[in-house]
Write a structure and sequence with these properties.
mainly beta; 142 residues; single chain; seven-stranded antiparallel beta sheet; globular; four-stranded antiparallel beta sheet
Length: 142
């Protein structure tokens, strides 16, 4: 499920606010916390570089990943997007989602997000989000 989100979504990496939006898309999928997809105009895209990493989602299609470089610091595959998503997810096209586990901090309004366990899903956990969630050890197949 995709919802328009007017909450302030912020991503800080290498002490730099790389994304700040009140116009994101909130995606809810079975058994994991929401992921926020931020429109490119609300992201400092000049510090992002397309990586060789790709993945496939049976629902959304092919994802491309980005590394972020600030000064001499680089964070690999910190964000991903769907340049040509499946029709049902067309509104996510070119929006960027960030892994909170790879950022210094991510916020929904002023609440600091806890990253979803594991390296696969990239969900954002706030006080309003209750698990259990897929992603941690022994949870990938339910």
């Amino acid at each position: 499920m995709i919802e328009d989100c007017t909450a302030r979504i912020r991503v800080v990496v290498c002490e730099f606010t790389v994304a700040d939006s009140t116009n994101s898309k909130r995606v809810l999928e079975t058994s994991h916390p929401p992921v926020y997809y931020i429109p490119p105009q609300d992201v400092s895209v000049t510090c992002l570089k397309l990586s060789d990493h790709m993945s496939w989602c049976e629902w959304k299609g092919s994802a491309r990943y980005y590394a972020l470089t600030i000064g001499d610091q680089t964070v690999s595959d910190v964000a991903w997007c769907y340049p040509d998503p499946a029709p049902r997810f067309a509104e996510l096209q070119d929006h960027l989602a960030f892994y909170p586990s790879k950022a210094d901090a991510c916020y929904v309004d002023d609440e600091l997000v806890r990253p979803q366990k594991g390296d696969f899903y990239g969900g954002w956990i706030t006080e309003q989000i209750v698990g259990p969630f897929k992603g941690g050890p022994a949870t990938m197949r339910w």
